[in-house]
Amino acid sequence: MSSLTHQRCFNHLLREAVARCPECRQHYCRECVTEHDDRLVCASCLKKSTAAASAPRRTWRVVARLALFGAGFLSVWLFFYFIGAMLVSLPTSFHELTVWKVNWWDQP
Ligand SMILES: [Zn+2]
Ligand SMILES: [Zn+2]
To answer: In the chain, what are the domain boundaries?
Structure first.
């Protein structure tokens, strides 16, 4: 640890370095490092690692929710579309409640 005493903080040139960031290999003073996963890392590396860990997960959750909403909306739309198409394709006599009077065998 004797070599550290000759090192200065990467951010504060007047301060003595107390730790070396394992990510960017720069020396930092007590104020510039934070403990993360039992290691002392600098603030910029901590920000980088936490952003990389949380950002894609949040984005995927939003995408998954949007896809789920889209799929649900599409299935409901298709359901009512086919019900509408089925009702339209039915003979008019069905809606007039006279379907039982039609003789299906004699239809052209
Ligand atoms: Zn760093
Ligand atoms: Zn510093």
So the answer is: 2-89
CB 98 within 8 A of CB 92: no
CA-nearest of 49, 52, 56 to 24 is 49
Instruction: Compute the distance between CA of residue 29 and CA of residue 37 in angstroms, rounded to an integer.
Output: 19
CA of 60 to the centre of ligand 1 (A): 27
pLDDT digits (tens, 9 = 90+) for 8-55: 999 999 999 999 999 999 999 999 999 988 889 999 999 988 887 777
Q: Ligand 1 (ion): which residues have CB within 5 A? A: 21, 23-24, 42, 45
Among 51, 47, 45, residue whose Cα is nearest residue 28: 45
Q: Which ligand is nearest to the CA of 46?
A: 1
Q: What is the mean pLDDT of the chain?
A: 86
Cα 21 to ligand 1 centre (Å): 5
Q: How far apart are the first and last CA of the chain?
A: 101
pTM for the structure as a whole: 0.46
